[in-house]
Structures are given as C-alpha cells and as structure tokens.
Design a protein that fits this description.
The chain has about 425 residues and is of the alpha/beta class. Helix content is about 45%, strand content about 15%. The chain is built from 17 helices and 13 strands.
Amino acid sequence: MATKQSKTQSSSRAIAAIILGRVLQHKGSLASELGGRVRIDAEHLTEVREFCFGVMRWYFELDGLLQQLLKKGIRNKDSDLRALLLIGLYQAKHMRVPVHASVSETVAAAGVLNKQWAKALINAVLRNYERQTDELHSNLSPAQRQAFPDWLFNHINTNWPLNSESIFEASNGRPPMTIRVNAQHHTREQYLEILATNAIEAHISTTSMSAITLEKPTDVFSLPGFELGEVSVQDSSAQLAAELMDLEPGHHVLDACCAPGGKTGHLLEYCDGIDLDAVDNNAQRLSRVEENLQRLGVQANLVVADAGEAAQWSWPSSEYDRILLDVPCSATGVLRRNPDIKFLRRADDLAPLHAQQQSILHSSWQRLKPGGKLLYATCSILPEENEQIIAAFVETHSDATPDPISATWGEQRSFGRQLLPAQHDGFYYCRLLKAN
C-alpha cells in the first residue's frame, strides 16, 4: 500500500513534469509557469521547485545523458514524459537519491500523468543509467559537462578564458538570498542585530553598502519589518545602481526600464527628495512596481511607454539630471536565479537585444540634461551587450564622456566595470557624463 509520502512525491514529480514539459516546448518560462499557470498545493511547492530548477540548471548535462539512453526520440506531445525522465536522472545524479528509489517514484509519477505505457521505458532508462554511469558521463561534450549550450559555452570561454571555470560553477550554483536594508528605517548594523534577535543568521555583504546576505534562504514574510518596507530582497550587485547614480535632493530622475521595481524603490530610499519618473513598456509589470513602492511607502510617477521610442514619450518632463538604464539583456549574469535562460535563450537572440539596447540608450540620452549623468546597466556578462555598446555610443556622440567608477568590486573594462557571478550576480555598470 502506497504511503502518503510516496503519493506526495509522485504528485510533485508529475506536477514538475507538466511545468517542465511546457518549458521544453517553449510555451513558457519557469517564472511564468510556477507563477500561476499550474496550480500547486503548498505541500508540493518545495519539491516541485527543486525538481524544476534542478532540471533546468543541469538540463544540457541531463539531456546529453538521456539522448544516449534512449533508443528513439520522445514525441513532442510527450514532453512531460521527457521531463519526468530528466527528473529521474536529476535525482540520481544531483540529489544522490538511490536509483531504486528514483525508479519507484518516477514510475509512480507516470501513472499520475496517465502514461502507464511509459513505465517500462522509465524503468529501463534509469536502470541503464545506474549500470553505465561512468561511460555515459565520459561521452558528454565539454559544454554538456558544464550544463551549458554550445554557443554560450564557447562565448564565455572566448571572452573570459581566465574566469570561465568559475563562471560555469557559479552559474550552476544555488543563489544566496541577499536583502537590502532601507536606510530610512535602520542602519545595516542595526538590522543585522534585529535578525540575530529573531534567530536569523546573516552576514554583511561587502559589495554594496546596504546589503546583508542570509546564511539560509527564508520566506520573505518572516523577515522583520518586510511588510513595512524596512527591508527588500535584492542581490548586492543590483544594489550598486543607486550608489552609482550620484543622486542629490531635488534631482529629476528617470528610471527608464523600471520593472519589477527593485532599483526604483532603492533610488527613492537612497536619496530622499528626488523627483522620479519610472517607465516600463508593460502595464502589468508596472503594476508590480506600484505594489513594491506602496510597501516601501515611497512614490514615483509611473508611465507606460517604450523607452526606445522617443516619439512615444508623452510625459511632461523633457530633461533629467540623472537617468538609470537597466536595459533588457541576455541575463547571462543571473543564470543561477533563472536557469531556464540557458535553454530558452538562443545565439540569434543577441542581435535584436543589441538593437534594443542601442535604441534605448540613444533615446534616453536625448532626455539627459547637459551636465547630467546616465548609468547604463545590464545583468549580462557578454561584452557585446556591455562595453561594446558603450564604445559604439561614445564614438558617435561627441557629448558623451565615460565617468570613471572607482571601486573595489568587479573588473575594470575598456568602458565601465563588470561583476562576474560569484557571491553576487553578474552585473555591468557604466556611467556617462553629458557635456555642458
């Protein structure tokens, strides 16, 4: 007789297989699927997230193993079965679950998915993996061993030959939970003491001035003062944006690609008395910004518009003292938080992104006052989206001068500074000064 635990485990695997199947068919991302398309009971959520993120984190390795174990391909309509097999391999390889247990639970999950016909296939694949583990892994390509697509594996090796191994390792790791202390409520040291009083272990992050990293991730609502806006969840790399803006009270500031609003809120926390316009081209995402600002108790003028289309800019302000451009990018610096990006992103996605980055930078520059500063930011580690964009812009705009960033974090590039994935996310920053 099946125990309640085994039924729960089978259900968790089946739910995860459905979600992963949709991702594998390019019908959604992990964020969109876990965010509401599939109803997940609380008792299944932790396991479902573990399976979904784990499989996508190691997808290219696991798929390389699966291709060797299958005698013929799996039909596209059975993408949930393919996902289920990947879950079984993930358990055996990365969760250290004994193969006999993985086989039992994965086979049971096939029943939940009404794929009884696949039980023999699942059993054969996982048993053969156990018998042929060493040989199967020795047949993987270098990119598959690092769980990266070929194009991105080669790109990183070419651009970061001395750092590639650490980039691969960090990108496949589990992200830390870092929080931003609202200086309008507490100093960082005061909040660290509050955490200790509540038995939450944490330490100061040296990357930014407001960051604390928790020793173990926790539910955000268990953080003291979270609902009152005393603290927010934000990686230390992302927290640098506000520090680099050189803000002063009375400045008129544009956050040109603001959703989901983490940096928007930080700008308003960091410097009281600024007048901030926050722009995004998606009304639904902008509603999330509004929710974040309400929790923090701060206000901004929220505008739905495409920052890359100057003709669409209809808000009253014509010039800004400071502009933050956190432009759309490949997100290759935050793969550990969004591992499905490695699967969903393609090499030919880069050219349209480059065009969009250039368009947003050009349009925004027209709105910057003489003597004003613009901060260009991405969560990418690809030079084509970072210093190469800036180099091309400076060459064609005689009124744009790089404003050096003096810092101990990251690496100095030909333009700007680059943080690679490590204890923090991979981010790029470059500050430009507009001539008077």
